[in-house]
What does this fold into?
Amino acid sequence: MTHTLFITQLADIFAAHQIKTNDAARPYHTDERNRYHLAPLAVVLPHSTAQISRLIKLCAAQNPPVAVIAQGGNTGLVGGCAVLPDCPSILLNLSQLNRVIEIDPLNQTATVDAGVTLQALHDALKPYQLIFPLTLASQNAATIGGNLATNAGGTQVLRYGSMRDLCLGLEVVLADGSVWDGLNTLRKNNTGYDLKHVFIGAEGTLGVITRAVLKLFPAPLHRVCALVACNDLKSILDTFSTIKSKFDQQLTAFEYISANAFDLVCTQFDITPPLEAAPEYALIELASSLPLDNGAFETALDTLLHVNVLQNAAIAHNEQQSAQFWRIRELISAAQKKLGKNIKHDISLPISSINAFCNATYAALQQAYPMIEPTVFGHIGDGNLHFNVSRGGAFADADGLMACEPQINAIVYRFVAQFHGSISAEHGIGLLKRDLLPTVKSDVELRLMRDIKQQFDPQNIMNPHKILP
Amino acid sequence: MTHTLFITQLADIFAAHQIKTNDAARPYHTDERNRYHLAPLAVVLPHSTAQISRLIKLCAAQNPPVAVIAQGGNTGLVGGCAVLPDCPSILLNLSQLNRVIEIDPLNQTATVDAGVTLQALHDALKPYQLIFPLTLASQNAATIGGNLATNAGGTQVLRYGSMRDLCLGLEVVLADGSVWDGLNTLRKNNTGYDLKHVFIGAEGTLGVITRAVLKLFPAPLHRVCALVACNDLKSILDTFSTIKSKFDQQLTAFEYISANAFDLVCTQFDITPPLEAAPEYALIELASSLPLDNGAFETALDTLLHVNVLQNAAIAHNEQQSAQFWRIRELISAAQKKLGKNIKHDISLPISSINAFCNATYAALQQAYPMIEPTVFGHIGDGNLHFNVSRGGAFADADGLMACEPQINAIVYRFVAQFHGSISAEHGIGLLKRDLLPTVKSDVELRLMRDIKQQFDPQNIMNPHKILP
It folds into this structure.
C-alpha cells in the first residue's frame, strides 16, 4: 500500500510550508514522555477550518481511509497523539490555527482558535482585567484545543472547574469533513442535546475541535498563599476541610505535596526548603477580586497549629515569595523527568477515601517492593492525586523501575477500584491506558461508548484505536 | 389496538396502589400551564430502579411498543410530559422513588433518587451546613430527576451554574431496559466519553434518570440583598457589570424585574412597593461563608446612585426584608397565572446584546400591537430573560392574547435569532417548542441529534416526539 498520490493531493489543500514529511516531521511525532515514536505519512499545519474540512474529506475518501490525529501542544501524557503501526495517519498539528478571535468583556467570553496556547490566551486577557482560569504547568505549549480534547484540569479546578465547565461553545470538523458550528456564547441554552459535551474529553476520536467560546472571570486582584506542613495525610485533609468550609469560593488552590515530591524538587533544582522537613506539605491559595481578610486566614492557620493539625505554616508576604512556593509545586514533574522515565498514576478518589486509599496502597507497594518511595502530589481539593513512582528507593535506575511498571500499576489500580476512584483524573486515556478501560467500565457503558464512536466516526478515522480498545 | 393485556402485565411489576388508571390518573396528566390533557394508558409510580427496568422492557416488547414518559413534579412549562394522540404511553411518575441515599460531608456530595424534590434535598442538608444551590420557584414540587432532564437553572446560576454543572454522576435506565450505573462521586474523571452529559437536558428522550450524585457547597452564612431601580435597561446592565467585577464570586443573584412585572405582582398580591415607581428594577444578592463587607456594597451602590446609573436603592437590613424583596421576584409567574393563560418566552442572549435586543423587540411588538405591555424579568447575569406577555395593555382578555401567540412568537424569535440568542434558556424544548427547533439549528446539528436519538432509542419509545420533530 503506497500513499504517494495521497501526499501529492495534500498539496491541493496546503501550501508547501504547511506540509512536513520525513526529517521535518520528526519534531512532531515523539511524545512528551518519549514513549511513542512512529512517523505519520505527513504532518500538516492548517491555517483554517476549511483546510481541515478538505483534509478530512480527502482522508475519508482514500481506500483504505487515512487516519487523522489532531495534535495541539503535544504535551499529553498518555500517548493521545501517538501514531500506531499499520495505521497510515496524518498528524494534524493545530499550532498555526492560533487567533484570539473575539473578547467580549461584558459577556465575559473569549472566542479562540483551537491552536491558541493557554499562555497566549492568558496574555491576551491582561488588558481586560479578566482571566481564563485554567492553569497548567505546560501552558506555554498546551493549546486550548488540546485542553478541550482532554478536559484539562490543573490547579484552579477547585474554584473554577475543569475545561468542560469553562467552555460555552465549540466548532468541530466531523469525520465526514462537515463542520458543526456550535459556537454558542450563551450562559444558558437548553435547546436539545448539548453536543459540545460529546466532543470535550473525547481526545479527538469523534471530531477535530477547531474553535471554542470560553468563559472569562474577573481577575482576582488580591491573593494570599501559604505553605503548610503536617505529620500525616489525614491532617492535610482536615486542613482542607476546615479551610474550604471557612473560605469556600476564595479558596482557589489546595495542592498536596508529599515529602518525597518536596525533597525531590529541592534537591534537583537546588532550592533551600522554605519550611523545616515534615512528612506532608500543602500549598494553599486564596484569591478574590475583593480585599482578602488575611487576619482571618492567619487565625485559621494558627488554630490548626494550636490543635496540632498543622506542624508548621508559612504565609507568603509578597508575590515573589508566593511564586517561590508555587515553583516547588510546579517543578515536581520536571524534577521527576530529570531522574528519567517514571511511572505516573493520574488518579482521583472521593475526598473522604483518600487517606484510606493511600494507607492501603503504600502498604501493598511496600510489601511488594521494600523501600519503594512513591512521589505523590496533586490537587487534593478535587480528590486528584498524581501517584507517581520514580527511580530511587527500591529502584536504583529507571530501567529497573520501568520493568516493574505492570506490577506497580496493578497494585495501584486495584486499590483505585476498591475505593471507587478513577484511573485517569485529568490526563485522559489515550493509548497508554486504553487497554485498562474494559477493567474499569461496565459492559453497558462500553457499549454506549462504542455506539457513539460508531455513530460519529463510522470509518474509524478520527484518532482511531485511542480510548476504546 | 387494545392494551388490556399490557395493563394486566403491569400488575406483574407493580403493586395495585402503584398503578393509576382512568380517574385516578387524571391529576397526573394535565400540565402546569393547562395546555395538555391527553390520558396515558396508565400512570405507574415505581419504588425502585428494578421496577423501571422491568417496565421499560415490557413496553419495548409490545407490538407496537408502548412509549414511556418520565414525570417528576410535573412543573415543566413546555409540555415535556405531555401524552400525544395516537401514541399509547405509560406515564412514569417518579415521586415515590424519593430517598436521599447518602450525604458525604467531606466529599461534599449527595446521592439521591430522581424523585426527591429539590426542597426535600435542601431540607435534608440543613444539619450539615452544606447547600445544594439550585433554587427555583417550583422547588416544593420539582424533582431532582426533572431538574436534570431539563438542565434546570434558576436564580443561583451566576455563582453555582446550572444543573449540568452541579451533577457528578447518574444512574439511567436505557431504552432496552438495561441500567447504566454512572454514579460517579469524583470531581475529576477523564475516562472516555462523559455519558451523563448526553442524558442531562435530554428531557427523558434518551433514557430515564433514576439516581444522581450532586455537588454540595458550604452554606453561605452571610447574605445581603438589595432592590435597586434604574431609568433604563442599559443602566441595569451597567450595574450588573460593576457589581460583578467588584464582588465576583460573592454575587449569587442578579435578577431583573421590569416595571410591568413589578407592578403586576404588587397589584395581584396586594404588596406595598418597597421602592418608588421606576421603569426598571433589579434584585441583587451577595452571599458568602465569610462575613461580607457591607460597607463596600453600600459604597458601590452609592457611587452608582451618584453617577445616576441607579435612581434608587434599598438594602435589606434583615432576613425578613430580604424575603420581602425575593417574594416580589418569586411571585411574578404566579401573578401572571392569575391573569390567565399567557405567552412565555424563556430566552437568552449574549449579555452584551440584551439592551439592543430589547429595544428592537419592544419597537416591533409595539408597532404590531400598540399598547402591548410585555412582562419581562429574569436572570440577567446569565443573559436569561423571561420575555412574557400577559393580558392587559393591547389585550383585554387572555383568549384575545392567545389568538395572537404565533405572531407574537414570530416577532420575538426573529430578534432572538438576529442577536444570536436562544429560544429556550432553561425550560427546554418539550412539545411546545419542538417545531421551532429546525428554525434555530443547522442541518448538521439536527442530523447529529437525530443520530443520537436513533442510537439510544432505536424503537423511539423514550418520551417520543419531544425535542425533535
